[in-house]
TrEMBL record:
Gene3D superfamilies: SH2 domain (3.30.505.10). It holds the Pfam family SH2_2. It comes from the Eukaryota. One of its GO terms (molecular function) is histone binding. Residues 16-172 form the Spt6 SH2 domain. PANTHER family: TRANSCRIPTION ELONGATION FACTOR SPT6 (PTHR10145:SF6). GO terms for cellular component: transcription elongation factor complex. GO terms for biological process: nucleosome organization; transcription elongation-coupled chromatin remodeling. This is Spt6 SH2 domain-containing protein. InterPro entries: SH2_dom_sf (IPR036860), Spt6_SH2 (IPR035420), Spt6_SH2_N (IPR035019), TF_Spt6 (IPR017072).
Length: 192
């Protein structure tokens, strides 16, 4: 009997047999749902000047023409207990930082769409989005702007910057011995 069942399964038309196609379509549906959950989010009922109900791609597009240091807080594709901070670091370079919301009542559906009672980024805990902006984002942006305005900061891709640095290094005067190096530093110690 088993042998006949095996022959019967091998001779099935894949376009006609309903059991097999339903299993494949279920797997295909599950795969599409996973892809959709990555691309889309549930709109949230949060009112704050830095919050927008947009996707990752829309946040990047919105920040593309703005200065480095600009940011958007948006819903996360990870679920209703998460937000994401999208920060423009440089042209074409963006950072996405997860904000975990705490203190939500998961039994109440409207509570899931509102902001949590506590917000956590890494080990830091905040009470609201204003505090996130004041204690987390603003210091981060000030350090970013200091880095971008530093005299040794070089603009360009990694390959371009590596080439620039190797050219600068080859142009620097090389010292044969330690004595000439000490003399050089003594002459130029106050140079900026």
């Amino acid at each position: 009997m088993r042998f006949l069942d095996l022959i019967h399964v091998q001779n099935l038309d894949p376009y006609y047999h309903e059991e097999r196609s339903s299993t494949q379509s279920d797997q295909e549906k599950a795969r599409k749902e996973r892809e959709m959950s990555k691309k889309y989010f549930k709109p949230r009922l949060i009112v704050h000047p830095c919050f927008q109900n947009i996707t990752t791609d829309e946040a990047i597009e919105s920040l593309s023409d703005k200065d480095p240091g600009e940011s958007i807080i948006r819903p996360s594709s990870r679920g209703p207990s998460f937000l994401t901070l999208t920060l423009k670091l440089y042209d074409g370079v963006y950072a996405h930082k997860a904000i975990v919301e705490g203190g939500k009542e998961h039994k109440d559906i409207t509570s899931l769409f509102r902001i949590g009672k506590t917000l956590k980024i890494g080990e830091d805990t905040f009470e609201d989005l204003d505090e996130v902006m004041d204690r987390y984002v603003d210091p981060l942006v000030s350090h970013l702007k200091a880095m971008l305005s530093y005299r040794k900061f070089r603009k360009g891709t990694k390959v371009e910057v590596d080439q620039l640095l190797s050219i600068e290094k080859s142009e620097k005067r090389m010292y044969e011995d330690i004595d000439s190096l000490v003399v050089y530093f003594q002459k130029h110690i106050d140079d900026r």
